[in-house]
Design a protein that fits this description.
There is one protein chain. The chain is an alpha/beta fold. It is built from eleven helices and 17 strands. Strands 3, 4, 5, 8, 9, 16 and 17 form a seven-stranded mixed sheet that branches. Helix 6 links the parallel strand 11 and strand 12. The longest helix has 13 residues. The two termini are about 20 Å apart.
Length: about 350
């Protein structure tokens, strides 16, 4: 394979804020010394893909090939690549670049680098737009690629690269990994269902908090949650007051925070992980009178991603997915917007034969 030439590949791109995806042909950069050329096998669909393709955050650039839960096979490596070999199964998440000189970069928190480069809807160091995993191939710097542990199924791994590490990282960072803690998972979607699984595997007592009863059986029987709390059940919420060490809030749309703050113990944390483009509100005594805190967490570092994958392998954790072909992707996005998926769509990219 000639690494000195650009490659023309096909992906599925949004052209405007309608968010509708269709085939799009574009060029990938040549494989540089530190680059890994990856043949994409599959890619998860995240709620952020909806936000970006529809310009919900007001900063979308088109054409845009989304997808940041990418699993693929290494087909070529640059001359300075030491971490990967041809034939390795690898993953790519939300970020494909950072400055490598700032404090976050120097302490293995490159996801907080102010100059990070997103996997798509961004501009790479060569001035070309980045495009994501809804495509046949990607070229990614080895720093932002992780090896998938042997024996893990690619389709099962894909959601872990965003949804899985989004939960693992705050639990790890805030010292919430010990057994016996009582945790809440607010919202039972792609991130939330992995939150239940990972927290349970850490030995936590897990309460799922949802807006209705409709996911109760799934939460308790399929995912193994210990309790299920409906946020509109005033009596149930009152009984659960002051009972949780933390809540991971995965809801990606506007919602009040005060009902959930009341569930936290002294020094409890409400950890926001959902991307919301409208202001949230609370009254300060809800924090002050329990020394509670509201904080945020954004995906995870490359180091945490590797740790999370190893943790999931050791604990035999998998994501619950619905695999679709690329020609179904627009329907999948519509269903995701309606929360009509259990719990993550994964696109079978290689089976969709995009380049034929």
């Amino acid at each position: 394979m000639d690494s000195e030439t650009e490659r023309t590949i096909t992906g599925w791109a949004a052209r405007d804020p309608s968010g509708i995806l269709s085939p799009y042909t574009y060029s990938l950069r040549k494989t540089g010394p530190d680059d890994v050329f990856i043949k994409v096998m599959c890619c998860g669909i995240c709620h952020t893909d909806l936000h970006q393709t529809k310009n919900d955050l007001g900063m979308s650039n088109y054409p845009m090939v989304p997808g940041h839960e990418v699993v693929g096979e290494v087909v070529e490596v640059g001359s300075d690549v030491t971490k990967f070999s041809v034939g390795d199964i690898v993953g790519v998440g939300c970020i494909v670049g950072s400055c490598r000189n700032c404090r976050p970069c120097n302490i293995d928190n490159e996801q907080y680098c102010l100059k990070k480069i997103w996997s798509y809807n961004d501009v790479y160091t060569d001035g070309q737009p980045t495009q994501g995993g809804f495509a046949g191939s990607m070229v990614v710097d080895q720093k932002f690629v992780v090896k998938i542990p042997d024996g893990m199924e690619p389709e099962q791994v894909a959601p872990l690269l965003c949804a899985g590490v989004t939960v693992y990282s705050p639990l790890n960072h805030f010292g919430l990994t010990g057994s016996g803690l009582r945790g809440g998972i607010l919202g039972l979607g792609g991130v939330g269902h992995m939150g239940v699984k990972i927290a349970k595997a850490m030995g936590h007592h897990v309460t799922v908090i949802s807006s209705s009863e409709k996911k109760k059986v799934e939460a308790l029987e399929h995912l193994g949650a210990d309790e299920y709390l409906v946020s509109s059940d005033t009596e149930g919420m009152q009984m659960a007051a002051d009972s949780l060490d933390y809540i991971i809030d995965t809801v990606p749309v506007f919602h009040p925070l005060e009902p959930y703050l009341s569930l936290l113990k002294l020094d409890g944390k409400l950890i926001l992980t959902g991307v919301i483009n409208t202001p949230l509100q609370f009254v300060t005594p809800m924090l002050m009178l329990g020394r509670r805190s509201i904080t945020g967490s954004f995906i995870g570092s490359m180091k945490e991603t590797e740790e999370m994958l190893q943790f999931c392998k050791e604990k035999d954790l998998t994501s619950m997915i619905e695999v679709v072909k690329m020609d179904y992707v627009n329907i999948a996005m519509e269903r995701l917007e309606k929360n009509d998926v259990r719990y993550r769509f994964v696109v079978d990219v290689i089976g969709s034969k995009l380049d034929q």
